[in-house]
From TrEMBL:
One of its GO terms (biological process) is aspartate family amino acid metabolic process. This is asparaginase. It comes from Terfezia boudieri ATCC MYA-4762. InterPro entries: Ankyrin_rpt (IPR002110), Ankyrin_rpt-contain_sf (IPR036770), Asp/glu_Ase-like_sf (IPR036152), Asparaginase/glutaminase-like (IPR006034), Asparaginase_C (IPR040919), L-asparaginase_C (IPR027473), L-asparaginase_I (IPR041725), L-asparaginase_N (IPR027474). SMART domains: ANK, Asparaginase.
């Protein structure tokens, strides 16, 4: 639920300021060991300095951060392992690391910087650059808790959108940021943007591709650059921020999307191309021949059409015929509005006329999201044109606002527990889940999750109790595989760590639950870097081939 996240952590025993049945915030990894974040510096203004002819790229970004107390507690942290070689993907290198001072959540964020060579110009980036960023994340996915990507602002909204569609089953935060002025300038937003990104990435398990700018965290495929000079350069006109940063950090947990397929993290096998997709803005007096010229470009397979208002275009019979012919030729044409706020919908005859030609309504997608989504879908040879048209009007990564029915009733068991124990809705829901898990009550678990989802209570999936356990930690050692599968299919995070710093996978292996370990691994779980050494020691003490030894081996020890 929306609300300011408090700095209370769940040490054991619980401190006096945490009620016995109190809950700590959803998906904040409090009390666990320090977080590890990889900062991927691709280029942009944030990585520049003032030169004789203006701003120029400056390498060794880590040297800018080292003297700054906000980024360095001077604890002389050792280097962190990283796969930094794009040519030799198996070559493990060690990058210098810094650690932030202790946050109000009693955590440090330790980070290293992986610099692209050469640094990319954001105004010249294309699908190849998107692929390089995605592969850097893929190679290091199991080594870090989250990722922050430094990027130029000109095309930042396009890259953030593209990465969201290229990546599947994401379980960790990927946060894009940049700045309007370099880190080296006295008047700059660079420090606030990078530090805010690091704090959110290092403390909260938000499994989305996001963009952080001006003290706000946005869904990456919802943003557009709306100001070229102000520090609040980006807007998300049709979707609220996922988080806002002030004295407190407010996370809108009910807006966070989570993976619901039991598959591990992956990037698309079919990298998107931008050459076969075009964008055309409708204007008063546009000639049908102009649109026809675009549609006849060699190799064109998709067109994003920016129209007036709610999706309107000139009611010109010749223009409509040109669009109809383009659709019949197999070109996917998507209609998005030129307006900052609003949606394409069939309110006017001028808009429904476009729909009758076969043009797809893009609803409230931004131009950036529509273009990158269309590019990614067209790259997949397994999708037909009709399937792509259908998918363009459906939300795949939260890029389209979908209407949902509202429920006003709590399940009877929640009402009963709340009345008997005077618990709030969070406490009652967690009590119902814990009781159902321990009993192996599959129906009870499904009903509680279903009701919470209907009410938009995303907190139920990844809620911590005062001991630092989520329901998935409990389900990981449950005798009911169906319950564990239910949590995973509903989007419970496999990467959250309990008070002792352990993931659900570690607990399942330690309990000798082979089937649970298999299912968690299939869903993208892996041992945290700090768990592997201990897990390997425990495995070495067991008889080779024993059930528990096999569990540890399958877990990755």
């Amino acid at each position: 639920m929306p609300g300011a996240t408090t700095p209370d952590s769940p040490p054991s025993p619980a401190p006096s300021n945490v009620p016995e049945l109190g809950l700590v915030p959803d998906a904040v990894t409090l009390g666990a060991p320090e977080s590890r974040v990889l900062v991927i510096a691709t280029g942009g203004t944030i990585c520049m300095k003032r030169g004789l002819n203006g701003y120029v790229p400056e390498r060794n970004f880590m040297n800018l951060l080292s003297p700054r107390p906000s980024f360095n507690d001077h604890s002389n942290q050792p280097p962190m392992p990283c796969y930094a070689d794009a040519v030799n993907a198996e070559a493990l290198t060690y990058l210098p690391s810094l650690r932030t001072p202790l946050s109000t959540y009693n955590r440090h964020v330790r980070f290293s910087v992986l610099e692209f060579d050469p640094l990319l110009d954001s105004s010249s980036i294309n699908a190849k650059g998107w692929g390089e960023i995605a592969r850097s994340i893929e190679r290091n996915y199991q080594l870090f808790d989250a990722f922050v990507v430094l990027h130029g602002t000109d095309s930042l909204a396009y890259t953030a959108s593209a990465l969201g569609f290229m990546i599947g089953s994401l379980g960790k935060a990927i946060i894009f940021t940049g700045s309007q002025a370099p880190m080296t300038e006295l008047q700059s937003d660079a420090t606030d943007n990078l530090l805010g990104s690091l704090i959110i990435a290092g403390h909260f398990m938000i499994p989305e591709v996001c963009l952080y700018f001006g003290f706000k965290l946005f869904r990456g495929n919802r943003v557009t650059k709306s100001n070229s000079v102000a520090f609040n350069a980006f807007s998300s006109p049709n979707h609220p921020p996922l988080a806002t940063v002030g004295i407190n950090i407010t996370i809108n947990w009910n807006l966070i999307t989570r993976p619901s397929t039991l598959t591990p993290f992956h990037i698309s096998k079919y990298p998107p191309g931008t050459a076969h997709v075009a964008c055309l803005r409708i204007f008063p007096g546009i000639l049908p021949e102009m649109i026809e010229g675009v549609l006849k470009l060699e190799g064109l397979r998709g067109l994003v059409l920016e129209t007036f208002g709610s999706g309107n275009a000139p009611e010109d019979g010749r223009l409509l015929e040109v669009l109809r012919q383009g659709v019949e030729d197999g070109i996917v044409i998507v209609n998005v509005t030129q307006c900052m706020t609003g949606s394409v919908c069939p309110l006017y005859a001028a808009g429904t006329a476009l729909a009758r030609t076969g043009v797809v309504f893009g609803m409230d997608m931004t131009t950036e999201a529509a273009l990158t989504k269309l590019s990614c879908l067209l790259a997949d040879p397994n999708l037909s044109v009709q399937e792509i048209r259908s998918m363009m009007s459906r939300s795949l990564r939260g890029e389209i606002t979908e209407q949902t029915l509202m429920s006003f009733a709590h399940p009877p068991q929640l009402q009963k527990i709340s009345q008997q124990q005077a618990l709030g809705p969070k406490q009652a829901a967690l009590s119902v889940l814990a009781y159902a898990i321990k009993k192996g009550d599959e129906i009870g678990v499904r009903e509680a999750l279903k009701q919470a989802k209907a009410e938009g209570e995303g907190w139920l999936l990844n809620e911590f109790d005062y001991a630092g356990f989520t329901p998935l930690h409990i389900a990981a050692t449950s005798p009911s595989l169906a319950i564990l599968r239910e949590f995973l299919s509903q989007g419970a995070s496999v990467h959250l760590r309990n008070h002792d710093g352990h993931t659900p996978l570690y607990l399942a292996a330690d309990a000798g639950k082979l089937d649970n370990v298999k299912l968690l691994r299939e869903s993208g779980a892996h041992l945290h870097t700090e768990e592997i050494e201990l897990a390997t020691i425990l495995r070495g003490r067991l008889e080779a081939g024993s059930g528990k030894a096999i569990c540890w081996e399958m877990a990755g020890a």
